[in-house]
Write a structure and sequence with these properties.
Radius of gyration: 20 Å
CATH class of the largest domain: Alpha Beta
Distance between the termini: 22 Å
Shape: globular
CATH topology of the largest domain: Nucleotidyltransferase, domain 5
Length: 319
């Protein structure tokens, strides 16, 4: 067993994958385990236990942090609701502490990622800033005076579930027309399929791919073909960027931050869409052209931000 001082495990439980990392106090990832995110409570609990046990065979750790795409109670003990996960009104922190035999910290995944970027990324230079995380869905976080803002009931902010299209696409949260149905990794797939189904496309490799293997159309397919210059894939990316810009404009209107950090797995392809999104944001705020706007930057931790951030939080909570 490898030993080191103050190692913790950070687990990012997203709608698609459950990723766990051993992290040292500087935020360096030492080891990783990953599984598909299970769809039942029992299987999810088992998966968490499996990745922690696997990592503990190789490293001595002192605590575990769980970063969850969910509404978490203000005391950070329970999950109220998780649009992409099976947990509903269930106590998590103390139960997983007993199951794992280690202290457990429970945190919203976007808050965890924001904390990673606060310690190691662009947030180091800002006192008040917003985090806009784009992955399977959209997560959000707000840092004020270098502290995470949670709201009265622990659920603030939820950028991804702002209704942007009345009666629009169905969302796993139970609503329709949420921003993340138009601006997320899964939205890239939805938009591509919609454009093809309605005939809104030029001749393209993406359309040909869909007609030969419909199940093979994913957000990654869209991004790959956009990088190859495929006209339909580029139109999908353009649509995505427009919705992101409108979402960023709402963040600017409501919170007026000095910095917005775009993170999450999709941010690794920010060169395809971020300039367009920022221009769209600038056109959609009140007083456009006559007010200062947040600078918009990509995070430095990418898809690892949640794991790193919650691992650092677990270490801080268990000195």
């Amino acid at each position: 067993m490898a030993t080191s001082e103050r190692l913790t495990i950070g687990i990012d439980i997203g709608g698609t994958n459950l990723r766990a990392a051993v992290v040292d106090p500087t935020g360096r990832i030492i080891d990783v385990e990953q599984l598909p995110t299970p769809s039942s409570v029992g299987a999810l609990d088992t998966a968490i236990g499996h990745v922690v046990a696997a990592l503990r065979t190789r490293h001595e750790v002192v605590a575990v942090g769980l970063a969850v795409a969910a509404f978490i109670t203000a005391d950070q003990t329970s999950v109220r609701f998780a649009p992409h996960l099976p947990w509903r009104d269930i106590e998590i922190r103390d139960r997983m502490t007993r199951v794992l035999g280690l202290p457990v910290v429970l945190e919203h995944d976007a808050n965890a990622a924001a904390w990673g970027e606060q310690i190691l990324g662009p947030g180091r230079e800002a006192d008040t800033w917003a985090f806009f995380a784009v992955g399977t869905g959209i997560g959000g976080a707000l840092v004020t005076d270098r502290k995470l803002y949670r709201g009265e009931f622990g659920t603030a902010p939820e950028f991804g579930h702002l209704t942007v299209v009345q009666g629009g696409r169905t969302c796993p949260c139970g609503k329709r027309g949420c921003l993340e149905r138009y601006c997320s990794g899964s939205a890239l797939e939805l938009t591509a399929r919609e454009f093809i189904a309605t005939g809104r496309h030029p001749r393209s490799a993406l359309a040909e791919h869909y007609h030969s293997a419909p199940e093979g159309i994913t957000g990654r397919t869209v991004v790959r073909l956009a990088r190859d210059g495929d006209p339909l894939a580029l139109k999908v990316i353009e649509d995505f960027a427009c919705w992101m810009g409108r979402g960023l404009a709402v963040v600017q209107e409501i919170l007026d931050p000095g910095l917005i950090v775009v993170g999450g797995g999709v941010s690794r392809d920010a060169d395809l869409f971020l300039d367009h999104a920022v221009a769209e944001m600038a056109e959609n705020v009140v007083g456009a052209g006559h007010r200062p706007l947040a600078r918009v930057e990509t995070g430095v931790l990418g898809a690892d931000a949640g794991m790193i951030g919650v691992a650092l939080l677990a270490g801080t909570a268990n000195p």
